[in-house]
Backbone:
């Protein structure tokens, strides 16, 4: 076949000798004409060195040179010969047969590209604008949530990417949307918004990859990142309040716990006090008993030796002690018809003694011994003293 | 010079002839070769081909997967007579270029129109049988499958294969969305109230439990304390009984004196006495006789 790809290569190895090149070229042309139009007589011309030949040579060199290309790191060159894929070249300088025989497309494989769904970041700025049409979606429980995410992808197969889809890159957005909506549509709102965010992204990645593989796009989904998953703006306030309510719940519990932590140790303290006091009481009562008993027993021993005398002495001792410390009123009741006025009310003003019963006797003889009132007890009773002075 | 001119002319003529008779089919294309309007060859494999110059002409068709996107989401009624806005896309490709050319004159737009009509009516049918909930979550995958199969069946006659029909968005119309938002808001309010009263309840419970514990602790301690005291009292009683049992009569006397002493020990106690009492017998006379 005249257009056998081999012939270009032969020229490629060609020496710098122009004559040799031209000779070959001529031969080729002759062969071409000979095959295509067999009726034509082969043109005959002598190999005279004419200026036209170097020009042709120069054109040919330039033509060959157009076949050089360089593939960057992370890229692949896809070489098509007459539209048919013949090889894929890795990084480095390469040569392909020049137009119109071969062509090359250099595609960056490793570069991570991003598709934003639900929002757009303006070029060179950090501000982002919302795309509500993309970001609002229905959940399984018929709520609406607002999700923004970014898909990062690169290529895993240059050939697939180039040959199987007219606009493989444009598919990514559509596929991302359909994948996320499928998952969100099957999730409850709380799952998609809170606990399941990670999982939504992971599952979206899997679904996307599956679909893109089905289309043979050669695209590799590196990552699906949730930028934002929120309730829609219209209901944001109510959601925030619900979150606050959750905090309130914790706070109230803590307050209750704080109260408990205050009350219970105090009660333990009180209990300990009761127990200690009881213990103290017990020891006191017992020891008192022992003491009293011992004392009594000792007195008893002596009493048994001389009962009458001891009894007398104890009685008088007691009487003495009692009478020396109380206020005394001695009344002779033999002449019971005389009237005796006792300032008992004054005496009783500050006493609660029960022994006044005897004073109820109204008659006091004239020779009654006047009440011997201890001056100590009167010192504090002005009223009584003034009365005392009057009677004197 | 003349011979060189001939060479040049020869070269140019050759190039012209080649360019007229040769054609390439790209990896991404099909080619149909027409001879005076009649399809004589279908080239599905890429590479270099030849044709008759002037008589044959070649038409190319994309063999890649193409995407049909809707310009605007369409309204569909669900079985509960609610409207939903649906946006979808269709992935399709030409598999039989000859059929494709015959039925659609190779016009991609016409193909898309036909496809979208098919998918649209399919959507209408399937949505009409289902509720929003089923459309959104439950049977989404099934709907897409059914649509793909029916669209594929119909488009095969046109030389088209439908690889996938995917629902991109199924949304509620704006006015319905509003009521959804209101419902969501009410729901959140309910949750918030529930949480708050739960909090109050929990706190009250904790406090009440603390109060109970306090009472229990103190009561237990009290009972134990009383027990201890009782033991003390018992012990004391025993000691007293042992001691006083030795002479009850003297004890009564002795103890009474003690009691008198502790009863009358303040100046504010007033004793009204008769001089005839035993205590004063020596006050009257030294013999103590009456």
Residues:
């Amino acid at each position: 076949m005249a257009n056998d790809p081999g012939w270009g290569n032969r020229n490629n190895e060609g020496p710098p000798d122009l004559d040799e090149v031209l000779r070959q070229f001529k031969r080729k042309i002759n062969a071409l004409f000979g095959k295509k139009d067999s009726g034509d007589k082969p043109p005959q011309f002598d190999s005279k060195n004419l200026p036209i030949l170097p020009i042709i040579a120069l054109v040919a060199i330039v033509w060959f040179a157009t076949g050089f290309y360089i593939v960057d790191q992370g890229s692949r060159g896809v070489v098509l010969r007459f539209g048919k894929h013949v090889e894929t070249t890795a990084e480095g300088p390469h040569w392909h047969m020049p137009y119109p025989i071969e062509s090359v497309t250099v595609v960056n494989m490793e570069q991570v590209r991003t598709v934003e769904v639900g929002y757009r970041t303006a070029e060179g700025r950090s501000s982002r604008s919302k795309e509500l049409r993309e970001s609002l979606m229905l959940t399984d429980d018929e709520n609406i949530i607002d999700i923004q995410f970014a898909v990062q992808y690169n290529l895993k197969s240059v050939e697939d990417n180039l040959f199987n889809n007219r606009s493989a890159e444009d598919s990514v957005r559509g596929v991302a949307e359909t994948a996320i909506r499928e998952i969100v549509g099957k999730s409850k709102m709380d799952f998609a918004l809170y606990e399941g965010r990670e999982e939504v992204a992971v599952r979206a990645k899997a679904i996307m990859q599956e679909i893109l593989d089905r289309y043979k796009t050669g695209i590799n989904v590196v990552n699906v990142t949730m930028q934002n998953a929120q309730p829609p703006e219209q209901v944001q306030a109510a959601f925030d309040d619900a979150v606050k309510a959750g905090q309130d719940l914790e706070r109230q519990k803590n307050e209750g716990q704080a109260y408990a932590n205050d009350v219970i140790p105090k009660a333990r303290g009180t209990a300990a006090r009761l127990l200690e006091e009881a213990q103290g009481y017990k020891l006191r009562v017992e020891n008192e008993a022992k003491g009293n008993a011992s004392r009594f027993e000792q007195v008893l021993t002596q009493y048994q030796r001389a009962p009458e005398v001891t009894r007398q002495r104890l009685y008088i001792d007691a009487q003495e002690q009692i009478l020396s410390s109380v206020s005394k009123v001695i009344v002779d009741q033999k002449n019971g018809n005389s009237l005796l006025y006792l300032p008992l009310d004054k005496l009783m003003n500050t006493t609660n003694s029960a022994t006044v019963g005897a004073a109820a006797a109204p008659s006091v003889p004239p020779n009654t011994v006047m009440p011997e009132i201890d001056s100590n007890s009167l010192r504090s009773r002005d009223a009584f003293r003034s009365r005392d002075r009057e009677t004197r | 010079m003349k011979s060189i001119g001939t060479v040049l002319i020869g070269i140019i003529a050759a190039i012209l002839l080649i360019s007229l008779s040769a054609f390439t089919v790209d990896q991404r294309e099909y080619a149909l070769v027409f001879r005076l309007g009649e399809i004589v060859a279908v080239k599905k494999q890429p590479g270099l081909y030849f044709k008759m110059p002037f008589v044959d002409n070649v038409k190319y068709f994309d063999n890649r997967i193409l995407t049909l996107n809707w310009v605007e989401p369409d309204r569909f009624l669900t079985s509960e007579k609610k409207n939903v806005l649906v946006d979808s896309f269709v992935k399709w490709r030409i598999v039989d270029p000859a059929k494709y050319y015959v039925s659609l004159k190779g016009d991609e737009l016409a193909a898309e129109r036909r496809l979208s009509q098919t998918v649209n009516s399919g959507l209408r049918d399937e949505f009409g049988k289902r509720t929003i909930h089923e459309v959104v979550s439950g049977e989404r995958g099934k709907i897409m499958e059914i649509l793909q199969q029916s669209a594929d069946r119909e488009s095969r006659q046109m030389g088209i294969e439908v690889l996938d029909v995917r629902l991109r968005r199924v949304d509620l119309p704006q006015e319905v969305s509003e009521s959804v938002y209101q419902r969501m808001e009410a729901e959140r309010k309910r949750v918030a109230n529930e949480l708050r009263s739960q909090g109050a309840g929990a706190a009250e419970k904790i406090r009440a439990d603390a109060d109970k514990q306090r009472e229990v602790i103190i009561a237990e301690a009290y009972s134990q304390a009383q027990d201890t005291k009782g033991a003390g009292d018992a012990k004391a009683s025993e000691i007293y009984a042992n001691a006083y049992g030795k002479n009850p009569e003297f004890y009564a006397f002795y103890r009474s004196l003690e009691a008198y002493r502790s009863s009358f020990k303040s100046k504010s106690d007033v004793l009204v006495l008769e001089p005839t009492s035993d205590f004063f017998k020596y006050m009257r006379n030294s013999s103590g006789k009456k």
Summary: Residues 1-15, 35-42, 353-392 of chain A have pLDDT under 50 and may be disordered. The first strand of chain A starts at residue 68 and ends at 71. Chain A touches chain B through 139 residues (CB under 8 Å). The two ends of chain A are 169 Å apart (CA to CA).
